[in-house]
Amino acid sequence: METQNSSLGQGNNPEVDIIECPHCHHLMGYDDYIEVGDMSGQFKMDCEKCQKPFDVDFCSMFYFETEKLKEEE
Description:
The protein is built from no helices and four strands. By secondary structure, it is mostly beta strands.
């Protein structure tokens, strides 16, 4: 699995911050698989429900909000 050719962001999984099993569609967390500071990568995992293995490709996104400085009087 290569990040450059990933289908991330193309509507395969409308959920954010959650992993969906491609076999049984069970929803799972990712805390045990990603280290603090990981921005993107791949890993393999087994579904908690059906126990079937699958590949996971992830990338981090940042959202920025800007605001004009308040003018001093």
